[in-house]
Design brief:
The protein has 450 residues and is mainly alpha-helical. The chain has a domain of 117 residues: Cytochrome p450-Terp, domain 2 (Orthogonal Bundle). Helix content is 58%, strand content 4%. The strands form 2 sheets. A 3-stranded antiparallel sheet has the order 3-4-5. Helix 10 crosses helix 11, helix 12 packs across helix 19 and helix 17 packs antiparallel against helix 18. It is globular and about 65 Å long. The structure holds D-malate. The site of D-malate has 5 residues, from loops.
């Protein structure tokens, strides 16, 4: 894809141009770190690091973001800073997912013309291979939405431009361009096939071929195929949700994709691998676990319980030896920065539909709980390193309140995590990162070293 002429004005850069321009300085840094500093110690690895799931070990090269106890920065900018500077889609007050995607790939803020052109390029790619659609339509509705998407991605791999390029011997330093072709196709195709899964499972196939808006963004076209054409709140929810969830460093799904990518697995199968690990309840599966917990709480003590009733309910959970989902985080030690925009969304766009009022009440209870439960947990579980609410405490409930079935919610998260990860995938190829191959050790081998 070449630079696009823009009516006599300066040419609008494509994402290919922007990455190409950034590449020499990143390659230079890569070469410097590899050649000049290869023997410098970055961290003293302890037995605790090995026994403790490598927690906190700075050993996964990650170009697009960095996460630490205080939060996450994307190319050095916090979420809040990005929300202020990234352009918004026409008529939207949420961060534009397309702008966020552009930024993650390039480390630069797209201007309005670049955003429009990028969105148009993505809209032009809004076509899922017929083989994938037919396969999708043949799946039993009893299969979970996530499993369906994973299976569709494995069929989609037959159409990978990256794999074709590999097979036809494309030069190594050009592979990132083919990876980017697949990645861009997947940014728009994954939501579309997800909407098709939804239509097949929950809407007797209605709207699965509804005409898309070629001038719309991915969220609007997703909403159209979900049967939510013109539903501004839903489209805004999707924009907000996707831009928040695109990347969070080397968490389990992203780490899985990074590992898979390191073996040059194609982008579609790499996405499938990340979605599989995302289903675990200790990772993105926690979104559904938190939602189920909150539903059970509302059923037991009602949508407007006293703080004492909430405390009693939570103590009962703890006495059974269960965790209270939605609080604490593997890495963050203060409030999850992604909660702020979600809470703002809840406060500025209350659920008004009378049919959803129970969900609306539940959502308000959960939002309220986020302010009182941390203290309850601090008093009853003093060993918890952080009791702050995490993003899972509210995000699933919010989507449920906007009418999404619980089984489908993980897919909405999976779509965005895939969008963010593809930026890393393309940089994996652009920098020529090596295959991940750590050593495995038995406990006896560790003992023998002590
Ligand atoms: C995520 O966004 O994936 C979660 O916060 C999990 C994590 O960062 O470890």
């Amino acid at each position: 894809m070449a630079t696009v002429e823009s009516h006599g004005l300066a040419p609008v850069q494509t994402l290919f141009d922007v990455i190409e321009a950034r590449l020499p300085s990143r390659l230079e840094l890569f070469s410097k770190l590899t050649k000049e500093f290869s023997d410098v110690t970055l961290h003293n690895m302890t037995v605790g690091n090995v026994m403790g799931g490598m927690r906190g070990l700075p050993c996964i090269l990650w170009e697009v973001s960095g996460t630490d106890k205080a939060g996450i920065t994307y190319h050095g900018k916090s979420l809040r800073e990005l929300q202020e500077v990234l352009p918004k889609w026409r008529g939207s007050d949420q961060t534009s997912p397309e702008a966020m995607i552009w930024y993650l790939y390039s480390g630069s803020i797209p201007n309005r013309a670049e955003l429009e052109q990028f969105a148009a390029d993505l809209a032009a790619r809004a076509e899922v291979p017929a083989e994938v659609e037919e396969f999708c339509d043949s799946l039993s509705p009893d299969i979970s939405s996530t499993a369906q998407l994973i299976m569709c991605l494995t069929v989609w791999a037959n159409h990978s431009k990256f794999s074709d390029a590999l097979m036809s011997g494309a030069p190594r330093n050009k592979l990132w361009r083919y990876a980017l072709e697949d990645a861009l196709d997947s940014h728009v195709g994954t939501p579309l096939i997800s909407a098709r899964i939804y239509a097949n499972k929950y809407r007797d196939g209605r709207d699965r071929t509804a005409p898309l808006n070629p001038l719309g963004d991915i969220a609007e076209n997703f909403a159209i195929r979900m049967g939510r054409k013109g539903d501004t709140d839903f489209t805004e929810l999707i924009r907000m949700y996707w831009s928040l969830h695109m990347d969070h460093g080397a968490n389990v799904s992203a780490h899985t994709m990074r590992l898979s990518s390191s073996a040059w697995t194609d982008p579609y199968l790499t996405l499938a691998s990340g979605l599989i690990s995302g289903t675990g309840v200790l990772h993105a599966g926690a979104i559904m676990q938190a939602l189920r917990y909150n539903q059970a709480m509302v059923a037991a003590i009602g949508p407007e319980p006293s703080p004492e009733a909430v405390e009693t309910y939570i103590c009962r959970t703890l006495e059974k030896g269960h965790v209270v989902p939605g609080y604490g985080h593997a890495l963050l030690r203060s409030a999850d920065p992604r909660l702020e925009p979600i809470t703002r969304f809840i406060n500025t766009r209350p659920i008004t539909d009378s049919g959803s009022s129970e969900q609306g009440k539940m959502l308000r209870l959960i939002a309220h709980n986020s302010t009182i439960v941390p203290d309850i947990l601090r008093r009853h579980v003093p060993r918890m390193k952080s009791t702050a609410p995490n993003v899972d405490s509210l995000s699933g409930c919010l989507m449920y309140a906007h009418g999404l079935d619980i089984d489908f919610i993980l897919l909405v998260m999976g779509c965005s995590r895939g969008m963010g990860f593809m930026a890393q995938y393309v940089w994996d190829r652009a920098l020529g990162l090596p295959i991940e191959r750590p050593l495995s050790v038995t406990m006896d081998q560790i003992m023998a070293k002590l």
